[in-house]
Amino acid sequence: MQAVVCEAFGGPEVLAVRELPDPPAPAAGEIQVRLEARGVQMVDVLMLAGTYQFRPEPPFIPGSEAAGTVVAVGAGVAVGAGVDGFAVGDRVISRHSPGSFCTLANAKAAACDLIPAGFSVEEAAVFKGAYHTAYHALLQKGRLQAGEWVLIHGAAGGIGIAAIQIAKLFGGRVIATAGSEAKRAACLEEGADHVLDYHGGFREQVKALTGGKGVDIVYDPIGAAVFDESMRCLNWGARLLILGFLGGAPALAKTNHLLIKGAEAIGVRIGGVQEFQPALAAANIKALLQLAGEGKLRPRISHRFPLVQAADALRAVINREVIGKAVLLG
């Protein structure tokens, strides 16, 4: 099989394209998938650098999300298309930890799902991680109610686009922030009610848009100064959702603002849900796949690369060129 291998910790330059032996037949509870599309995300960048919370030692094959066709089924896996099992020829979303930047891989059957009706294989490859994050954050951690104001930072990214779509689907009023005209235009196309350039501050604009009340939910994968200013945009009883630190550093929440506004700062880590609340995670994915199959959710993909150009795909992520998601094909 063909694979992209991380041969040392570092940037995209540490990747090498290699011909490797095919994986063994799938073990009990596994399926083997001929991969056709793979998501590329910031987690992959951090894993290459050795700075992610899960730190595989080189050499390893990066990538955690993919989609393709089942070519073999291990013992103990129910045979037949549908939620109860998989058959050879099924089109599936597969999860790897890591190991998707290759053409053939084994995956735990319990972590795989049939591709929703109407989805392309590339859309399927980038769906679950981003949309599960946004769904859990907004509906379960953020307790979004119809009519509430939602301020979404990094709104043109993978989890940002997903958040816009989910917030609008469940009745939220969305203010999206993004750093370029092209990204802000994309946010409007995805359903945001208003878009703002977060450079130079956004507090007064948010207050004006919400009639001086502020927002009910902040969805923040940026941190740093963006978090600090968001604290001054809160309505009474607001929920400030902490999803990451793309701005470079964690922020220090000023607890006096939380006290005065009766607000909550809430951490969101989808890996924790999968580890500690597997029943909830499974229910969330089932709901999301149903919504996707009904045509109510659809990923946005701005960049497509062949598998052998994985380093270029990661550079596009690092340089913040991607709107929505990037995929590796082939």
How would you describe what is shown here?
The chain is of the alpha/beta class and 330 residues long. The protein folds into two domains: 2-127 and 300-329, Quinone Oxidoreductase, Chain A, domain 1 (Alpha-Beta Complex); 130-271, Medium-chain alcohol dehydrogenases, catalytic domain (Quinone Oxidoreductase, Chain A, domain 1, Alpha-Beta Complex). 31% of the residues lie in helices and 25% in strands. It is built from eleven helices and 15 strands. The chain has helices at residues 42-49, 121-125, 128-141, 158-169, 181-189, 203-209, 224-230, 255-261, 270-276, 278-293, 310-318; strands at 2-6, 15-19, 30-40, 65-73, 91-95, 104-108, 113-114, 149-152, 173-177, 194-196, 215-220, 234-242, 264-267, 301-306, 325-329. Strands 3, 4, 5, 6, 7, 14 and 15 form a seven-stranded mixed β-sheet that branches. Strand 8, helix 4 and strand 9 (173-177) form a beta-alpha-beta unit. Helix 9 (270-276) crosses helix 10. The longest helix has 16 residues, at 278-293. The protein is globular and about 60 Å long. The N and C termini lie close together (12 Å).
List keywords for this structure.
single chain, 330 residues, Quinone Oxidoreductase, Chain A, domain 1, 11 helices, globular
Number of strands: 15
Low-confidence runs (pLDDT<50, min 5 residues)? Answer: none
**Fourth CATH level, the homologous superfamily of the largest domain:** Medium-chain alcohol dehydrogenases, catalytic domain
Major sheet attributes:
7 strands, mixed
Rounded mean pLDDT is 95
Net shape: globular
CATH-defined fold name of the largest domain = Quinone Oxidoreductase, Chain A, domain 1
* Ends distance: 12 Å
Number of DSSP helices? 11
Regarding CATH, which class of the largest domain? Alpha Beta
Structural class: alpha/beta
The SSE string, one letter per element, is EEEHEEEEHHEHEHEHEHEHEHHEHE
What is Rg? Answer: 20 Å
The CATH architecture of the largest domain is Alpha-Beta Complex
Strand content: 25-35%
Approximate helicity band: 25-40%
